[in-house]
Amino acid sequence: MHFCYPGDSYSVPWQSGGFSRCFLETVSSISLGGIILLLGLAVITLSSPPKLPKGLRLQVAKWLVVEIVLCLLYASTFVADIFMKSFLKGDHVYGITIVVDALGITTWCFTTGWIYFDRWRALFGKPHRIIIMLFWLLNGLTLCLMIISWSNPFWWWRHINRTDVSDLILFVLRITIQLILLAGAVVHPCMTHERYVKETSVLLNSFQNQSIESDITATSTNSQQSQGVIMKSEGSTFGDIWKKIRLLLPFVWPRGKLFLQVLVLLCFLILVAGRGVSLLVPIYYKKIVDELTPSSSASYGTTTGNKSFVGLDFTLTINENQQVTFPVELIIIYVFLRFLQGGAVGSIGLLNNLRVFLWIKVQQYTSRTMQVDLFAHLHALSLRWHLGRKTGEVLSVMDRGTSSITNLLNYIIFNIIPTFADIGVAVVYFIIAFDAWFGLIVFVTMALYLLATIGVTEWRTKYRRDMNERQNDMKAKAVDSLLNFETVKYYGAGDYEVDRLNKAVLAYQDSEWKSLASLNILNSAQNVIITIGFLSGSLLCAYRVKQGILGVGDYVLFATYILQLYQPLNWFGTYYRMIQQSFIDMENMFELFDAEQEIKDPPDAGPITISAGQIEFKDVFFHYTPQKPILQNITFTVKPGETLALVGPSGAGKSTIIRLLFRFYDVQGGCILIDGQDIRNVKQSSLRQSIGVVPQDTVLFNDNIMYNIRYGKVGATDEEVYQASEYADMHERILTFPQKYGTRVGERGLKLSGGEKQRVAIARTILKSPAVVLLDEATSALDTETERHIQTSLMKVCEGRTTIIVAHRLSTIIHANKILVIQDGRIAEQGGHEELLTANSLYARMWNQQQKSLADEMNVSGNLDSAIT
Known about the structure:
The chain is α/β, with parallel strands linked by helices. It is built from 27 helices and 17 strands. The chain has 4 domains: about 15-205, no CATH class; about 225-595, ABC transporter transmembrane region fold, CATH 1.20.1560.10; about 605-690 and about 770-869, Rossmann fold (3-Layer(aba) Sandwich), CATH 3.40.50.300; about 700-770, P-loop containing nucleotide triphosphate hydrolases (Rossmann fold). Helices cover about 60% and strands about 10% of the residues. The strands form 5 sheets. It has a 6-stranded mixed β-sheet, sandwiched between helices. It has a 4-stranded antiparallel β-sheet with strand order 9-8-11-12, with helices on one face. Strands 5-6-7 form a 3-stranded antiparallel β-sheet, with no helix packed on it.
């Protein structure tokens, strides 16, 4: 039995313009088999994890199944190869076929088992995924070396017979499988406990505590997300890349926007044209050098002699044996190509300028759409979420997240994709125009560069993520402190707040240093790889010129093209880092998008129709948490035009009734009806448009008074605003301000007094002209005199409208048609003011207590006046 194919030898690595088939298959199969088997067995022997306990099952991950199936399919290609050559076709089986197929079956079956074993190790937090990725990368490199050996007659590329056709089919299948595995390795670079292990039953022994702790963690996570807490992101940035890409795709191809779609197509055409220009520039540079290089029948050596220039035929005569043609057309074409590409260092050529110009509209559409969608989503979230949010953190996430969308599209579409295209074109061109060694040098350099970039960048991801979290914390502390400026001053805590921010800045700078230091390591590694690759190619090219195989123009072509190729490759590290950073910046924004809308309209919901304004609560049950019920069996009716008052101790559930009616929350039992319509079955926007609220703590926009009053009815005229202000007894007061209705009220309306803010809120509600009015302790924070004035204004608001009042001072609700006394989430008493006093129960005791307190205050006030007198 012969080991190699006839005429081939494993002792000659390179022959006939390509790698020897026997040599390459022998070396690659033994090397790859040795790597995976030795490293794998060493890890299994030295660090085998304990057995899985009963009751703990590995989650069936889709990609794990795909990887195992692909590896088994790859192993089956070697079985098919030896089967067809031995039995079906009757060809002579050589020793190389037996060695390659036997090692191939062994290594790929072992790889399949190693994938599952690595999943097993992931349970204990110690996966060795890098071994599998190294094996796949080297195997892919071997397949590429086979491709560049296409001119060698011993490969199947040249002589197509039955055996070669089967070899070609198996080769195509193998390289397809390898590409899928490598692509999956980039998308799923890590195998962590959280992503690949799931406890599906109650664990025994030592794992019981882990199960309980896992349940508590999951409950805490869900609670934090519902309360607006932005969770910490873990794992690889590209772990859920398909989800992120699906969110990006609508912004790359804007549906329904024909003009923008045309711009996108033009931009892609310009990208394709740019790849052709990038190839032609060094080619024409080489042609110019060849034309300007003296040609001689004797040699390429330098000669001396008489020199003359004949301008008409553009010919330089150096001596009688050498002539140099003046390449006018080549120079014009070369300069034009440079004009398209970019003529000077750092300049941007016509094609790129045109592409940037056309992309502006698409970029603006992307940024605007993402911002508006996120803003709308935040407004659609429940009150529960907004009560738990940190405003500064949310604003920081919105700012970084929306800007990262534009950056991602620019980096991926206009930098990363063209760079990979240029690398592919360069490898093919060098193989065809020079020889396979040049293509191999370029390919290996690029592969090592990309591998180092991806590996180091993934390693430093944790530093960037930690820096983002500390930056969020720093901004949240600063914004929170400024929003509570008065509180800080009241307690003299200015130095404490400054020191608190200083510590947050120091923590941020510590993380920033780690991020920048790791970036410096990455830049140094990239520079070393590129330098070694350029040096190797330059030496080889210079050697071929010295041999006379290549000309001086070929060296110029190689140096120009390779430097042109390395220039965007130098930026590739930056692009990859920026893409990764943009994904990290987007993670919190995606978490905001993932926050579920607690209160949703039914698909068939329509606008509410209010004809009379009757409100009914029927057996309403509600709780914020199941352990603490807030309302139990609440039933009452407010007839059209009547006023209902809710009184009771703090925490009894009075304000909760207001929030349920406004549908900030949905009831857990019973229903709420307005004119016979369940408010859960109508659109929230129409419901809230029909209800006017005057809260206890009025918060105004940092704008002028006109804007804040008109907010009740955005399309109202100035005259309508003035009229609403007069009803609220605020018009004359506003006219005394220097800027009148143009007076800015400051952050949260702090430039106005409490009574002025309440009147603005009343005017806003009057302008809205709602069918139902809710007064949530609207005067409890005001002094007695101001309260009397506000009460007069409120009476005008409530006139002829169904009204529910939550009151602390009972004297303000004696006019109510019905009073409900709420205690411990239940209706303790109900009736009119006189009726409840006659009953001499809870309401009567509250009334007597408040009257006694008021009398005591008047006595104290009278004594003070007498003392002063």
